[in-house]
Every structure is written in structure tokens, then in C-alpha cells.
Amino acid sequence: MSQPRRKQPIYSDGFVKPGFERVLEVFRYNLENDIERGGTFAAYYRGELVVNIWGGYADRKARVKWKRDMMPCFYSTTKSPSAAVIAHLVDRGFLDYSERVCKYWPDFAANGKEDITLETLVTNRAGLSCTEEKFTVALSKDDPEKLGKILANQKPLWKPGANHGYHPITFALYLDQIVRRADPLKRSLSQYFHEEMAVPFGLDFKIGLPYEEQYKAPRIVMMKSFDQQEYIQNFKGDLSILQLTATHPTDFIGVRRMNDPDVRVLPVGSICGHGTAESMAKFHAILGEGGTWQGRQLLSKASVERFQQIKSAGFDLAFSMDGMWSYGMMLFPVKEQGKPMMFMFGHGGYGGQMGLADTTYRVGLAYATSHLDPTSRAGADADKRWPSMYNTLYECIHQIENVRVPRKTFYLYEDYKKDKDSSKL
């Protein structure tokens, strides 16, 4: 008779400030119950690091444990710092959301794009979710000028401004071309972020992970299978756009391509951000503080306030996500009894990544994992990992601040709209 399989001892490490111990307890519970297999969570509260924990495996088969300096891929959470780069250039007067993109990039006007404004582009309303011409994302590093011509030649896939569709990869490819033209030093978006934000504010986060640092990147694996048939049956967008996003670019078909060192190194601000959860939490904490950190300004209050305005909402044409977006950021409205609606902002990333800022409680948080759950894209209820720690974090904050009202976070626009409509009755 075979013996029952012995449960492997769990591994976790890190720091929690007194008052936040329950966040670690939840993380360990997730590890013990195979909800979590390897990841990291960090949070700042009122300018102070209060949680920085990691555990499980960076490579389960090789029994490589997660370490503090691991630099996981944040996938689309990278769009949050990319959106901040644009806001930084707006703050400095080099860009204007209301201006047409072709003012900065004349070739962009081709094929009916002459009236698309920067705001229309960053709010996912430009109709440029993908390109019809095949290209390789490697051009972002090897030949950005050639890539710029391909992007400029693309015609909108819907009437600009009339609808919205998530721009999974092209989002920051277009922004990179704009940054290269608007920045007086003609830097790429990746270089601009590194020099203007990462280095001055001590952020261990890079858009494109250099070869010499790739030993810190955990191996990416799929944690669950994805029911593609069910996804297609329930799809509420445009399937022809979905098909294009799935096959263009031709060298990034499948998220596990990020295990290729030549992909990890690419300076793509849509998907190739790598860093510690501590640094991504700090980045969002700076935004949660109103854009200023220890007397030094990252972004203006106006930019931070702009990030909290819903500009696109509901099921998008490209991915059929029932989300909410502002100026490049995802939005998560939060309701607490007796208070005005609050808007947390940041961005989720494929497989379960997250980075969020909260200006009300002055919080920045981040979660990353290399064990990807494809169902996490459907909303927080499908992936219990970061939401369980997020909810516990705010239970701790409520206790510290003696707040005794229920808290509800809206992940789907349909739920937010229903609540908003019912409040009017």
C-alpha cells in the first residue's frame, strides 16, 4: 500500500511591521494550500515600507527558492510606469494630452490618424490595439526607426474615440516613439524612466532586463490551463482584433516567451518591466503620496488626479475585459460607507501581477509571481493571491486608523455601474 504523499514544508521570508502580521499569515496560508507557489508582495503605508515578503519557488522543478532580490516580469503592470513617463513629459510642458499626436510625430498622421490626440491614444481609444502588418517586438531594440514606420502606417481598427480596446503590446510601442521625439534628449521610454524615475527615486525596476541581471529573473511557468473555447464563447469584443493581437508581433506568441533572454532584455514598456515588488510598491506609494516623495516631486498633483478619472470603461473590443481605464492606468473604484468613492489606480499584469496606488490612505502595493494564472485576467475573484493580501492589508489599516465600515473594491465596470445607479435611486 502506497504511503500518502508528504506535504512539502513551505518557505517564506521577509518583513512585516507590527500591526501587519496578518498579511504574512495570509501569504503563508496561500503557500500551504497551493494557492501560491512562488511570489512576492510589498506595501507602503504613509511613506513607510510595512510589508515586504516573498516565498515559494522561483523554479519549482529545480527547487530554487524565491529570494529578496528576484526581479520577476510584471508584464502589463509595466504600463503603469510607462503612463507615468508620459505624465512626466506633460508636467514638463513637452507633451499635451489635448494635442494631436502628429504634432510630435508627423508620420503618425498616415491612414486617417491625423486627428488622434495623445489623450485618445493613452486612454485606449485610438483603434491601434495591434498592427495588421507583421512585425517583431525585437525591433524595439534592434531597429526602433523601422518599427516606428510600421506603427505610423497602421490605420485605426475602429473610429478613433468612438470605442475603446485594450492595447496589450502596441500601447507603449506607440508611447516610446512619442517619447523619442518629445524628449529634448531624444531618449527611449525605457531610458527616460530609468534616468528620470528609477535612479532618482531608488527603484530597482527596469523596462528591459539587462543580460547581466537576468539570473535574478524567476522562471515563468503556467499554473493553470486556459479554457480558450469558453473564453471565445463569452467574448464581447471584436474577434478579428483579438486574432491580430494574438499573432502580431510574430516573436511574442505566448507569455512564456519571456523566458528567452533575448525577449526579457527588450525595452518594451507594455510587457517587459522587471523588478522587485518592493520597488514597484514604492513607485505606486509615491503616486499615493500625491506624486512627491521626501520633498522630491515625481509627478504633479494634477497628473495624479488625472490618473483617477475614468476615461474608458466596459468591455473592450480587443480582449473583452470589463474594466476601467484613465490616462494609461487601470482604475479600481473603492466604496466605504459615508465616504466619497475612492479610485485606486495602477495596472494589472498577465498571470496575476499587480501594482496599485491609493491617495486616500496613502498606500502603494505590488504583487508579482512567476507562476502564471491565466484566469486572473477575468477579475480578482478568479485569482485569490494578491486580492487576499490586499484585503488583509486594508483590514490592518482600518484597525490602525479605527475605521469600522465595510470596504468594497470594484474590479468590473458592470458592478461599479450597478452600484452607482442604485445609489441614485
Automatic annotation (TrEMBL):
Ranges where the Beta-lactamase-related domain occurs: 37-383
Leader sequence segment: none
InterPro entries given in the database record: Beta-lactam-related, Beta-lactam/transpept-like, Beta-lactamase/esterase
Origin: domain of life: Eukaryota
Record Pfam families: Beta-lactamase
Name of the protein described by the UniProt record: Beta-lactamase-related domain-containing protein
Species per Swiss-Prot/TrEMBL record: Magallana gigas
